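<goal> How does this chain fold?
<body> The protein record starts here
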Amino acid sequence: MANKLKILQPMKYWWLYFIISLVVIIPGTFSLITRGLKPSIDFTGGTTIVWEVNTEESKIKDFAKEDGIEIREVMQKGNVWTISASPIEKEIYQKYKSQFEGVKELSYDAVGPALGSELIKKTVTAILLAASLILFYVAYRFKNIKFGISAILAMLHDSLVLLGVFSLLGVYLKVEVDTLFVTALLTILSFSVHDTIVVYDRIRELKKKHGYLEFEEIVNRAVVETMGRSINNSLTIVFMLLAMYLLGGDSTKWFIFALLIGTISGTYSSTFTAAPILIAWDKFSHRIKK
């Protein structure tokens, strides 16, 4: 084991992992700032209708205009049409629907603007509350605020990766974010911190046993000793999510994809973001003391 530890020095290139993270994060963050996410009616309020009917897009839009319905987007897949529109009163909807012969309603979802606004506030509150509790818990358990802050920064890394990916998907593939996306985001934050704590706990144990070693060497040993466990644990989740993504239905497709991206990012960040942040923090602290 000792020989392996001498050969494997992943934390020797701790600065390189920051560069890799920036290369991944910057395009998505730029898209997130300039284009944002594409919210579903869960957040904006409105109506989503799915019909199976033999018609043309021009008729869908023209009839909607005649009935005073504001169409936001129309997507077609064979004879299945997904229509996103502003809130529609029930009577107007029935009138609109009756103009299409042989129409089969597959789904009809309506959310008021007030509910959408409230959901955004609750989502932001939930994320801030979760981040705060994790920060204080990790700082308390490891008796050092730098562990708590480093864990939160690693968690922020995973959030930016996931949000950036879905911002790009919204721009190029018109993928919308909904309440399932929020569920995936919160789940991934939990997963990311779980793996990070495993690495941090090993750092604490090694520091007690080998306090004479430099902090970078202690972190390196902790990473090497926990890397196999983290990768094996994550692969079982990745394989399961891949199967669900490939074989599952359209309703959960992007939810599973979000979990998949988050799991991969969380596995990377717990080892190659959370640990290097501690090393950078330690080096910076020593420079200030000198």
Q: What stands out?
A: DSSP finds eleven helices and four strands in the chain. The beta strands are 46-52, 71-77, 80-85, 104-111. The longest helix spans residues 215-247. Residues 46-111 form a domain with the Alpha-Beta Plaits fold (CATH 3.30.70.260).
